[in-house]
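hey
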């Protein structure tokens, strides 16, 4: 069995939409027929793990068969959050070793902040996916700009963290073991803005400087949030599975997710199938 692909969803700032992005990538992969293992390193919040627990409960109650990832047991997340770094690392390493033996893809959702677990996960990544809001507040973690001219000055703390992860991976696995870093602008407002144009110009400059590529994210749509309690995403919707009224916005959202998956080099799977908004 070939080694699984390791995708790490990371950004040291909270509120950028990491878990939302992770949930949608996982369900997209599941519908493409991939065996997926998930590891949720946000030990207290555990949004990714809770989403799939909701999914299991909803599908059982409604008589539907939905694809599910596997999740190695790391024990009580809140208790582990209070444990020392050595114990946290040991639990993570055991979970990762278990996941390697039963998945095509391992997706790791990291917390907002610089933690020992987040650093360890980044060092294992084949691909790092970084969501950021359409804001210079989020950009500040990637690069700093001159407060007068808004010209790019230098990489910032998260870019430095990814650089360190790349260096450690090259040391442990050789220079050919490259990490593909993709930054996606998440929660875009529907209307274009001058601020976005300024931000995109700085992003393009920083991408060349620190070595990431830019991909499409998910717009700020209510439909992404309204499906969360059911453990569902737009990838799951069909004529049989629609706990909410399906509109053209859901169809557009599914195309958005397909574009995201393709930009990451992942199979769009079921996302190619038409979704009838009137059914």
């Amino acid at each position: 069995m070939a080694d699984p692909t390791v995708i790490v969803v990371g950004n040291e700032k909270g509120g950028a939409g990491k878990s939302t992005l992770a949930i949608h990538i996982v369900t997209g992969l599941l519908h493409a027929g991939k065996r997926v293992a998930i590891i949720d390193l946000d030990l207290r919040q555990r949004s990714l793990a809770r989403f799939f627990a909701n999914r299991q409960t909803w599908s059982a109650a409604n008589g539907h068969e939905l694809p599910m990832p596997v999740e190695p047991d790391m024990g009580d997340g809140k208790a582990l959050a209070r444990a020392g770094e050595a114990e946290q690392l040991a639990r993570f390493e055991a979970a990762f070793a278990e996941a390697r033996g039963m998945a095509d893809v391992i997706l790791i959702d990291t917390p907002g902040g610089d933690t020992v677990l987040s650093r360890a996960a980044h060092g294992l990544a084949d691909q790092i996916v970084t969501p950021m809001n359409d804001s210079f507040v989020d950009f500040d973690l990637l690069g700093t700009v001159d407060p007068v001219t808004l010209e790019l000055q230098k990489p910032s703390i998260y870019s430095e963290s990814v650089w360190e992860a790349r260096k450690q991976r090259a040391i442990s696995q050789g220079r050919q073991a490259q990490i593909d870093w993709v930054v996606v602008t998440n929660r875009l407002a529907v209307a274009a803005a001058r601020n976005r144009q300024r931000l995109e110009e700085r992003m393009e400059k920083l991408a060349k400087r620190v070595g990431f590529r830019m991909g499409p994210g998910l717009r700020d749509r209510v439909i992404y949030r309204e499906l969360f309690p059911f453990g569902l995403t737009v990838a799951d919707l069909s004529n049989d599975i629609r706990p909410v009224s399906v509109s053209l916005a859901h169809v557009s959202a599914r195309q958005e997710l397909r574009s995201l998956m393709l930009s990451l080099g992942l199979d769009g799977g079921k996302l190619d199938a038409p979704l009838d908004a009137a059914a």
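The mean pLDDT is 88. The longest strand covers residues 127-133.
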